[in-house]
Amino acid sequence: MATLYAKKGEPLSAEDIPKTGTIAGAGSDTADAVHRRDTSSIVGRSVVTLDDLSTIQIRELLRKAQYIDSHRAQVAGTCSGRVLATLFYEPSTRTRLSFETAMLRLGGQVIGFAGAQLSSVSKGESIHDTLKTVSNYVDVVAIRHPKEGAALVAAQSADVPVINAGDGGHMHPTQTLADLATLQSRFGRITDLTVGICGDLTFGRTVHSLIETLCRFGNVRFVLISPDELRTPQYVLDRIQSSPSCSYTEESDLAAVIGDLDVLYMTRVQKERFFNEDDYLRLRDTYILNADKLRLAKPDMAVLHPLPRVNEIATEVDDDPRAAYFEQVKNGMLVRMALESSVVGDELAGFEPADAKEVFA
Ligand code: CP
Questions:
Q1: Pocket of ligand 1 (CB under 6 A)
Q2: What is the 90 CA–ligand 1 centroid distance (Å)?
Q3: 276 and 149 in one domain?
Q4: Smallest Cα–Cα separation from 54: which of 29, 24, 27?
Q5: Global pTM?
Q6: Is residue 11 part of a domain?
Q7: Residue 317 counted as domain residue
Q8: Domains: count for the chain
Q9: Do both 135 and 273 map to the same domain?
Q10: Is residue 13 part of a domain?
């Protein structure tokens, strides 16, 4: 494999990382531990990865998101009196604005910053102290940070639930909830699918979150399409290998495999994680999905992309019924409404919690 001059988010310093902390891929929970997790309530819970939730809880959040979509007026006061803080140390359009819109649409309020230069972080304040402080003001925090593990540190420092809105190249759990909601609405299921994932599989945190979560639901065949230098990290491949009903192949030619796919999840090459601009420029346009390539795909394949896109999906694809990426955007807001109301413990008016066995079926 060629040498890649890219910077994965620099690790946090030893003092920053609590002794009990786990980061997926750096000593994450075993599948057994995940399944032993409490399945009854997520009130007060932080969500650093979706491994913090049981599969039952994830399915219930998807049900809540669907319910919210069809009962907008009924749920509009659910979080009245609540305050969300969005602490974004890295740029964002969809995630920050949808976290904020979600709380506003539930009747709550929002504070926060978009860019650490406007906060006391620029004076050297630690994540720990920032979270200890903000915990006094709000009921729930959403944090995005360029360093892997930052959300875990935040969760362990805060006295209120913390939701990871993306930490470096590690995880992006609420994007995964949006992805699952989109698969559920397109196919009526999130299992028994052939899922192609294409582009930057090394640094794309949405990819890592999605693969790890789909493995827990099972029966997914992954087709991992990337240039040699941007292949899926070993810890993510190990997760697929340890899931008996899942499998993967690694490919480099999108046109050769697109006809086999139920889902094509396109990703952007993550410019911000490269050291060397030349490497980025050489790799960024490796895959461009256009109308010609889409002709080789199944008529009901779904094209997903976490966005933002650069060149990897031509705009001519947007009008194709297979394009599902703006549905993902809408689902992103709905799942964040479901998650925010759940972790603060506010019930959605009229929503009937599913019987645990029924949700699991
Ligand atoms: N999908 C996503 O995380 O988009 P933003 O970076 O705009 O939040």
A1: 92-95, 166, 175, 306-308
A2: 10
A3: no
A4: 29
A5: 0.88
A6: no
A7: yes
A8: 2
A9: no
A10: no
Residue owning the nearest CA to atom 3 of ligand 1: 95
Ligand 1, atom 1, lies closest to the CA of 306
- Between the CA of 306 and the centroid of ligand 1 the distance, in Å, is 7
Same domain assignment for residues 147 and 240: no
pLDDT tens profile 21-79: 333 333 333 333 333 344 468 999 999 999 999 999 999 999 999 999 999 999 999 99
Ligand 1 atom nearest 332 alpha carbon: 1
Nearest in space to 280 (alpha carbons), one of 207, 203, 223:
203
Assess whether 131 and 257 both reside in one domain.
no
Shortest-distance atom of ligand 1 to CA 307: 1
**215-248 pLDDT per residue, tens:** 999 999 999 999 999 999 999 999 999 999 999 9
Range of the domain at 74: 39-171+332-346
Q: How far is the CA of 272 from the centre of ligand 1 (A)?
A: 13
CATH number, domain at 317? 3.40.50.1370
For residues 256 and 278, membership in a common domain is answered with: yes
Which amino acid belongs to residue 161?
P
CA of residue 103 to ligand 1 center, whole Å: 17
Examine the domain organization and report whether 122 and 94 are in the same domain.
Answer: yes
Nearest residue (by CA) to ligand 1, atom 5, is: 92
